Each structure stands twice: as C-alpha cells, then as structure tokens.
Amino acid sequence: MSTIDLLGGKVQIYQRDNSRFWQARASVGGKQRQFSTKVETKELASKAAEDWYLTLQGKLRAGVLEDGPTFKKAADQFLKEYGVITEGERSGKWTESHAIRLRVHLVPFFGEMLLEKVTPGKVQEYRVHRMSNYAAPNPNSKSQHKPKAKPPARSTLHDEVVTLRMVLKTAIRHGWLEHLPDLTPPYRSQGKVSHRAWFSPEEYKQLYEAARAYAKEPFRSHFKWSAEQVYDFVLFMANTGLRPDEAFNLQHRDVTVAHDDGSKQEILEIEVRGKRGVGHCKSMPAAVRTYRRLLERAKPAETETRRERQMRRKTGGEAPVLVAPEYPQPTDRLFPGNHIRMFNNLLDRTSLKFDRDGKPRTAYSLRHTYICMRLMEGADIYQIAKNCRTSVEMIEKHYAVHLKNTLDAAAINVLKAKSKGKAKASGQPRRRVLADATEIQN
Q1: What band does 429 get if pLDDT is binned at 50, 70 and 90?
Q2: Among 75-79, 113-117, 192-196, where is mean pLDDT lowest?
Q3: What distance in Å separates the CA atoms of residue 364 and residue 352, rounded to the nearest whole number?
Q4: Whole-angstrom Cα distance, residue 211 to residue 117?
Q5: Is the pLDDT of residue 62 over 70?
Q6: Taking all residues of the chain, what is their mean pLDDT, rounded to a whole number?
Q7: Which of 190, 245, 369, 399 has the largest CB neighbor count within 10 A?
Q8: What whole-number distance in Å separates Cα of residue 160 and Cα of residue 230?
Q9: Confidence band (pLDDT; 50, 70, 90) for 29?
Q10: Could you count the other beta carbons within 10 Å of the beta carbon of residue 415?
Q11: Strand, coil or helix: what is 90?
Q12: Number of H helices and number of E strands within the chain?
C-alpha cells in the first residue's frame, strides 16, 4: 500500500488493496482522522483530500470542530454484538432485518452524525424525510423493485425506530452516550386498534369445503398428495391454534392422541417448538381425525419426471421399479412442505384472500380463526392465552375487541325503574310513563 504526501506531509492519501477508492488521513486537533475521497484517480483524490484537510482546519480555528463517536460507529458495534448475543433466541431474518434498515435508511441519514446530536427533533426530521422521499430511488437499496407509490406504513416506521433505539442503547452501554432521547412520535397518526384478518364461521366452512373438493379431484393427478395435505393443514390449524412456523416444525413424535378427562373426548396433546420456545397445546377433538389421516397417508413416491420419461422412451430404457409405499416416521414432519402457492390459489378461487377491510389472509389467519371461534363459544380467555402461548392482553387487544359475542346484551340493556313517588308527582300513572318510553324507543 503506497502512500503519497500532500501539503508538505500534513495530509497523506493511500489506496487499500481491497478498495478502488483513495483514502486520506491527517492529524487535526490532536487526533488522527481518516476520510474516503470516493474517487478512483490520484489527481481527483489529491484535490478532495486537500479540501477536506483545509475544511477541518477552518472548523478548528472557528471552534466548531466536533469530536466524538458517530452513529455509524454505534451501528457497527450493534451489528457485531446482536447476532452473537441473541443467537438461538431470535430468528435469522429478524437479525438480518436490523442490518437492512441500518444500511438502507438509518446510516445514510444519521451515519456521520455525532451520537449526542441524535435528538428527538432529528428523529422527527427522519420521520418526515421517510414520509416525503419514499418515491425517490434509494441508492443504498439492493432491491430491483421500483420505488413504492405510497409512503411507508406506520408499522414500518415503528420497526425502524426500534432499530434506532437499540443502536442508541448500545452506545449507552459503551459510554458513548449519556441518556436515551425521547423517540416517541409527537403526533399519533393512528389511535384505533384494528383486528387481525380471520375467517368467520361461514367463510371457514366455505374454505374447508373447497379444500376438500380439490383434494378429491385436483387439477393434475400428481397434485393429489399436496392437495390432501393442504386440506388437512386447514383443519389442523383451525383446531389447534398453532402458528404456521410451529406447525411446520412439528414432528410426529411431538403429537400424542390422549383422552381428556374433562370433555370425555379424544384430543391431541402437542409439544410446540416455535416463537416462544417449547410450549404445550391441547387441540379440539376435531383435530384427532385430521392427524390420523396424516399418519395413514403414505409419503409421495419419487417418480420420473416427464422429461426423464421421454428420454427413457427414446433410449429404450427400462421403466423404474415401483417401491413399496413409506409411511411417516416419528421424526418426520407433519407438513414437510408449506404449499403456500396452493393455499393462496385456494383463497383466490374462493374469493377469501382479502377480508372486508382489504387485509390479506394468510396461513396465520387460521390461528386467528381458532382464537375468535373459541371466544365466540364462551371459552375462558386466560385458558385460550395459555393454550396459544400468548397473553390475555394481546387477545383482548386484537381479537375480543371486534367480536359481538363478547358483549352481554342482558348486562348492557339495563333499565332503571322509576320509583312510585316520582310517577305520582308527575301526575301520570307508572304504566303510562313506561308506555311513553316504549313509543319513543320504537
């Protein structure tokens, strides 16, 4: 790595072996400082380095040369720590999402800013920037999609502020920042709580009947095994309340058919491994028949493809030998494939992909359907929360708030009877007062 002196040795420019850009370094204010010129030619790099050095000297004489750790330094430290400390406790996609938010949005805005300059006002400026420049191409994004035609959602900005808060907390732990600034939005853009997409009892019946019909007569014969799996997946999810990732991680050794002493029926006792670690779930009785069908369904046989069959016929080869059917083993998964495309096609054919509010339904909507139906049947909300490995607060916030069955009409429509003394004082009999009230209501 060769070094070139400028301005009598006060500034040096050099080029690293793994970079095409020239770098500059100089000692200003008793501290060694570095700078990337972002140019590839030596002449332009020399001019950029000299301008950078003279700018620093001018700030030093004016007393405005700021010094201290920057946001980018704290962001790099956060990414170095987070993946190691939370390994096994957070999904890889969630860890990667922090790195994407920092690279695409946060570091370009806050990167060279000193940590002490990240104030509530600057955070609000960031929100305004994101809401105003969403249609402009982002050079830091690796996505090939066109810029979005609408501003980022409230949840998107919330996730970005969460990443920002975690970076600032990292800076506090390392002594680079004294306290955490107020990151709450000054103006709430949404105060209502929207319910999650689910299937009403009528829509759920329409869905599983369509899945059953397709399982009996699929469009292609080689789709039959997958179609039957999708049909059982719909019934299994709606009768257990599992999360999709929990269902896909489920193995046959995690499921036991047991006799419930309380209901005097057979149910499934499931050992769940997913978002909340290891938990337990007890299913509805209807899930037992579905699970037994999964046990009795042979694995799909590996047959030759259409191209392989054509090549065999051209070369005169022998047909493959049919092997005996294999059935699921204790270590096999209940649902080896997610069949997302087939499930979405099923929703499209039944016109159930979106609810009346325009929210898309996914496999997660089957879990929401289970919770809503249990509430509609009068199940104890605390027991539902335990069985679904969530909290009572989450159920009351996202499910119970929009179900009419959770309202007791007899407790709401209470009429306070007027005393006899008041009825006589008004000069009208009590029966007449009640009759007038009835006429007004009608």
Answers
A1: low
A2: 192-196
A3: 14
A4: 57
A5: yes
A6: 86
A7: 369
A8: 36
A9: confident
A10: 7
A11: strand
A12: 18, 7
Q: With 70 as the cut, is the pLDDT of residue 198 above it?
A: yes
What span, in angstroms and rounded, lies between the C-alpha atoms of 4 and 24?
10
Q: CA-based angle 390:384:334, to the nearest 5?
A: 75
SS3 29: coil
* Category of 339 on φ-ψ map: left (φ > 0), alpha (ψ -120 to 50) or beta: left
Residue 279, strand partner residues: 272
Whole-number Å distance between alpha carbons of 14 and 24: 6
351: left (phi over 0), alpha (psi -120 to 50) or beta: left
- Are 329 and 299 contacting, i.e. CB atoms less than 8 angstroms apart? no
The reported pLDDT for the residue numbered 415 is: 80
Residue found by looking up tokens 């319910």 in the block: 195
Strand 22-28: give its sheet, edge to edge. 3-6, 11-15, 22-28, 31-36
| Cβ atoms of 250 and 242 closer than 8 Å | yes
Q: What percent of the chain has pLDDT over 70?
A: 89
Question: What's at 271, amino acid-wise?
Answer: E
Q: How far apart are the first and last CA of the chain?
A: 92
Range with lowest mean pLDDT among 192-201, 208-217, 250-259, 358-367? 192-201
**Residue-range domain boundaries for the chain:** 3-62, 71-173, 201-300+328-405, 410-442
Does the pTM surpass 0.85? The reply is no
Q: Which residue, chain included where needed, has tokens 């509805």?
A: 284
Expressed in percent and rounded to 5, the helix, strand and coil fractions of the chain are: 50, 10, 40
pLDDT tens digits for range 248-303: 999 999 999 999 988 889 999 999 987 767 889 999 999 999 999 999 999 887 66
At residue 326, the pLDDT reads 87
Report residue 173 as tokens: 């732990």
229, 198, 197, 199: which is closest to 211 by C-alpha?
A: 229
Tokens of 179: 């306290």
Q: Provide the CATH topology of domain 201-300+328-405.
A: hpI Integrase; Chain A (1.10.443)
Inter-CA distances, 282 with 37, 207, 287, 291, 368, Å: 63, 23, 10, 13, 16
Q: Are strands 255-260 and 31-36 parallel, antiparallel or unpaired?
A: unpaired
Instruction: Say if CB 231 and CB 215 are below 8 A apart.
Output: yes
Q: Can you read off the two tokens belonging to residue 418? A: 């007027």
φ/ψ of 70, rounded to 5, equals -95, 170
Q: Which residues are registered as beta bridge partners of 281?
A: 270
Q: Which of 61-75, 355-369, 417-431 has the highest mean pLDDT?
A: 355-369
